[in-house]
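Example 3.2
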Amino acid sequence: MTQDDKGSESLLAGYQRKYLRAIAHPLKPVVQVGQSGITGSVVKAVVSALEDHELIKVRLQRPEDKKTSARELAQKARAELVGLVGHTVILYRRNPDEPKIQLPSR
């Protein structure tokens, strides 16, 4: 993320974000946000995908403000905003029952 994002609280350290971005690099977006924006059905699809995969990409289609849209989507899905590359948002939410991704610790 950028310097503008310092105000947002995150449970992830910078090195963990970097690790997750590296894992997400080859992934394809599993949800697309259309012209209607972030609707209830989009949030439901994102939550379902996070439950299945923990780490997902979401493609935003011509958002008015992509940083705000990314933060809003992360907040509504109760997920961590890992990164924003172009119009693609990377989201992470650890599965409390069966974690698939082991985050590095220092």
